[in-house]
Amino acid sequence: MWFTSDNASGAAPEIMAAVQAANAGYARSYGADALMDQVRAQIRAAFEAPEAAVYLVATGTVANALSLAISCPPWGAVFCHTHAHIAEDECGAPEFYMHGAKLVLVAGDHGKMDPAALSMAIEKAKGSGVHGVQPAAVSITNVTEAGTVYSVAEVAALAAIGRAHGLAVHLDGARFANALVATGATPAEMTWKAGIDVLSFGGTKNGCMGVEAVVIFDPAKAWEFELRRKRGGHLASKHRFLSAQMTGYLEDGLWLRLAAHANAMGARMTRGLSQMPDVALVHPVGANILFPEWGLGTHARLEAAGAAYYPFTAPAGRERARLVTSWSTTEADVDNFLTALRG
Questions:
Q1: Which of 252, 284, 317 is the C-terminal boundary of a domain?
Q2: Which residues span the domain enclosing 330?
Q3: pLDDT mean for each 10 residues of the chain (343 residues)
Q4: Within a domain: residue 42?
Q5: Closest by CA position to 198, among listed 69, 48, 306
Q6: 157 class by beta-carbon count within 10 Å (0-12 exposed, 13-18 middle, 19+ buried)
Q7: Are residues 211 and 283 located together in one domain of the fold?
Q8: 279, 242: one domain
Q9: Which of 11, 21, 77, 234 could form a disulfide with 209 if both were Cys (CB 3.0 to 4.6 A apart)?
């Protein structure tokens, strides 16, 4: 009954097998390995983007930070949701890699930026002249930190606002596969066709050991990314082990199957929680992240039963939790949790 996060799961067997296979013999270092050529071809094919630049890094934080660094100058502003991961969970890494650029927080219900609020925030920043940061980029998170999912139309609407003001548009896709499965969209529809310029394409939360891809749909930004990655200390020497994870992840649609299972377990949990009169879901469940709220004393009972998850601040007299299902969550895990919750 482990629901702290999908990055608490182990690596999928197919990923481990790919890494083991890559361990044999010798390979060129620093991304010149043959497996990286395969990864590049796989991602370009999946995204219908034959000119896209593709790079690998080991963490989602640096994928986001470097993606924003090529999108925003030090005097610029990146507009993101109030509770975006880049704003609350990356210890200032985006600002660090952007050399001091500012994150401007935009409100919106259930983790989604409100388009009107985004427009207003951009207009306000544009009016500050030399005394304020200059609008440079919009960053969208899908799946959101509230567990909701932007539709393709919602992504396109936000991207259109940014583009109308000449801003770059970044998509934080730590759970990109979960969002695709939830919406039925293709990778191209959710990204460049909707106006996305650069994507942080997650693998770690969906069955990989530790690898993220940065997909840059404007290849003119590629060389700058390479320099920033090296200067930032994130060009892996034994790069083939990143490449092996990603090529195994993309092979035969494994990435989508793993996400589909995580989402299905999230749906199973949602159905069970919805049948309990004292339990309420704080946000609509779009994929594999849930925020239930229940009565006092429930945390202690679940912890005693062996459940692991993150408690969240709740209104007086209530308790709140975040539950995340993963590629390795079983039906028994969910059912045992629901049984413990019923008491």
A1: 252
A2: 255-342
A3: 97 98 98 98 98 98 98 98 98 97 98 98 93 97 98 98 98 98 98 98 98 97 98 98 98 98 98 96 98 97 97 96 98 98 92
A4: yes
A5: 69
A6: middle
A7: no
A8: no
A9: 11
